[in-house]
Amino acid sequence: MSAVRDHVQRHGHKWVGAGVGLCCSFLMAREGYVPVAHHQSIDPSNVITWCFGRTNYDDSSVAAGTRFSKEDCKQELMDDLMNRYGPPIQACIPQFVTYGPHRQAALVSAGYNLGAARICNSSVGQRLRAGDVKGGCAALLAYVYGNGVKLPGLVKRRQAEYEMCERED
Q: Do 139 and 114 touch, CB atoms closer than 8 A?
């Protein structure tokens, strides 16, 4: 993670403004508000989910049954997008700072769901770094499986992320 910190120190937080707001709204609508931390049947047995898709991978101190207000959940989501998911993607895809807010939001949304490292190390990141925006955006469409099963919800989400990624604005 020190490479991310170094990048942000050199270049600043460029993942701000409209892209963060778009991503936050998109994720709130897609993830849904879960006020009480609990295990969801679609997740591996050791995963607890709360708020707008946060899991114990994000914060291992949260126990099942913990309650959260919607306002606290939105603030946690914004903090995560600004400090945890946006910066690694900004660091691994140098062109990220030149993208419009819709493309930034699409990439960070996918990173929020899959992990920023997966975006960076996959064909999504490889193609974007090579300047192949269309190919990088299209590569998002491959990530529609959960526990080896193609999930209709992920198909819809990736299609929406792909459409945002394709936008120039």
A: no
Would the pTM count as exceeding 0.85?
yes
| Count of domains forming the chain | 1
Which structural domain, as residue segments, surrounds residue 100?
Answer: 2-166
Strand-pair category, 34-38 with 49-51:
antiparallel
Kindly report, residue by residue over 49-100, the tens digit of the pLDDT: 999 999 998 899 999 999 999 999 999 999 999 999 999 999 999 999 999 9
Contact between residue 93 and residue 120 where contact means Cβ atoms under 8 Å apart: yes
Model pLDDT, residue 18: 84
> 108-136 b/e with 16+ CB inside 10 Å = b?
bbbbbbbebeebbebebbbbbeeeebeeb
Q: Are 49 and 34 in contact (CB under 8 A)?
A: yes
**φ and ψ of 37, to 5 deg:** -65, 130
In the block, residue with structure tokens 């080896």: 148
The CA distance from 127 to 117, in Å, is: 15
CATH number at residue 92: 1.10.530.40
